[in-house]
Amino acid sequence: MTDTEYPPISEQLENLESAREEGRRKMDWATQHMPICERVREEFVANQPFAGERIGMAMHVEAKTAILVETLAEGGAEVAVTGCNPLSTHDDVSAALDTHENITSYAKRGVDDDEYYAAIEAVIAHEPTVTVDDGMDLVAAIHEDYPELIDGIVGGCEETTTGVHRLRAMDADGALEYPVFAVNDTPMKRLFDNVHGTGESSLASIAMTTNLSWAGKNVVVAGYGYCGKGVAKKASGQNANVIVTEVEPRRALEAHMEGYEVMPMSDAAEIGDVFLTTTGNRDVVIGEHFEKMKDGVLLANAGHFDIEIDLEALDDLAVDRFEARDGVEAYEMDDGRKLNVIAEGRLVNLAAPVSLGHPVEVMDQSFGVQAVCVREMLENSDEYDAGVHDVPDDLDKEIAEIKLEAEGVDFDSLTDTQRDYMGSWDHGT
Ligand code: RBV
Questions:
Q1: Ligand 1, from 162, 358, 366: best to mutate by most atoms within 8 Å of Cβ?
Q2: Which segments within 215-347 are labelled E, that is strand?
Q3: What is the pLDDT of residue 4?
Q4: Is 358 annotated for ligand binding?
Q5: For ligand 1, atom 8: residue with the closest CA
Q6: pLDDT score, position 2
Q7: Is 160 marked as a binding-site residue?
Q8: What's the pTM value of the predicted model, to 2 decimals?
Q9: Which of 61, 85, 160 to mutate to test the pocket of ligand 1 (most atoms within 8 A of CB)?
Q10: Which residues pair with 328 in a beta bridge?
Q11: pLDDT tens string 120-145
């Protein structure tokens, strides 16, 4: 492995031994609830599909992600990993990972922009043959600053909606020079992770951070994609009155037919108690909205980047700001109203001090898909040209079947007659 200037986590922490122990304890807990990754790991240990490969990763480095990292390393890869958000890393887990002989972890919580990108460069210095990204920062850095490495890269995998969106834009510009799987877009990922994972973990993080109730609140959910649907459903399940804002007419109608109030953000701003953005876009809650908001509102973001709530505008409007609680910054307006921003407007389910990310069970599914996608990319690299690729459906089904078996859920299969019927067109009344 190449020496890099940015040091691995083990060279950055005091109390390294106790950090490693605590990180390992968190991973031991997670793995007990990750039967898919366990099964895939057994297969990888036996077959060593990644022998001789170098995998570079930029993800939320906490216990569940660590299980994916280990799963890949135990399949024979050398893995270099860093964070994909300055606040989502658990240093103890990062330290525990870094003890593995095939893993180098550069992830550290609370890094500034320079350190964040230095750690990404440190991963790239390992000259990965495969990249695994959450948000596309690795792919972007390689294309912009290290294009000479692209020839040696077999392909990549992308975890999240925003990353896939960026990759598709890059592909449309003809700028994406190696194949990448859109892991986010599989049913086993987005119907569970985006919906249930985002819904449960965002609400849990906000509740734990504020100690406030959902019941009886007006909760404004910006964006009714998969994540917004999850947040709206779970908030409604906690007895909140849910208001949805949307820009896409069919999604707005879907939300309306689901029983939510739908209105523009400029109207919702006046009545919301909690605002939760899930759009993946920028400037969703802006100056004119802050001016109308009630005293004491909570503002949080569950989208990948911290640009959905315009914090610069909020800061300009504020006459004072202070840390109201751990993870809560209060912005005081000149009329005395206080607007409370949670986790600096970064994705709240991972970036608040108490956040733990999505629940273990859904990440087992997402990371199970990731693991078999890395295997597929290396096994059948000839089949994938530069560009964004859908994950083969059989791989996604393989993960679903492992999960159902682990849950002890049996299900039906088609008879031959049924299969013939479904494949034929010559039947009618
Ligand atoms: N996510 N990871 C976690 N490791 O705890 N929680 C959520 C974790 C992923 C999720 O798959 C989503 O697509 C992405 O984070 C957004 O950055």
A1: 358
A2: 218-222, 241-245, 261-262, 274-277, 298-301, 320-325, 328-332, 338-342
A3: 56
A4: yes
A5: 357
A6: 45
A7: yes
A8: 0.96
A9: 160
A10: 325, 342
A11: 999 999 999 999 999 999 999 999 99
